[in-house]
Amino acid sequence: MESLLTNEWLYYFSEMEEQNENQLNIELSEEIAEGIYSNLAIITHSSSEFVLDFIRVMPGIPKAKVKSRVILTPEHAKRLLTALEDNLEKFESINGRIKVQQEPSGFPMNFGGTMGQA
User: Fold this and answer.
1) What pLDDT tens digit does each residue of the chain (118 aa) get?
2) From CA 10, how far away is CA 28, in angstroms rounded?
3) How far apart are CA 33 and CA 37, in angstroms?
4) What is the pTM of this model?
5) Phi and psi of 30, rounded to 5°?
6) Does the residue 2 lie in any domain?
7) Of 42, 77, 40, whose CA–CA distance to 57 is shortest?
8) Going edge to edge, which strands form the sheet with 40-45?
9) How many domains does the chain divide into?
């Protein structure tokens, strides 16, 4: 997850372009544009940085790999939180409230349904 562009960031960057003579061009390669699916995130922090690990957990497999790691300054983490909150509010105003189910403690994650057998 190397590119986090929201409407707010695009607006921010367009405002920057108007205010500054320097223009910021953001490139998005095909590989990055495909994105990385994650159904688990683990967040840790120190006094100088936040580390967001994005993981894909598959049903019935007790092992998972970190698919992407994003390291942020505390200030940028706060801006990201604000942008996420704003986008969630907009999403819910159009699509209805997102229902968050309580996960049972422990792993692996419960994906529901029946377990397949080979």
Assistant:
1) 444 555 555 555 555 555 566 788 999 999 999 999 999 999 999 999 999 999 999 999 999 999 999 999 999 999 999 999 999 999 999 999 999 988 766 555 555 555 555 5
2) 14
3) 12
4) 0.66
5) -60, -40
6) no
7) 40
8) 40-45, 50-55, 66-72
9) 1
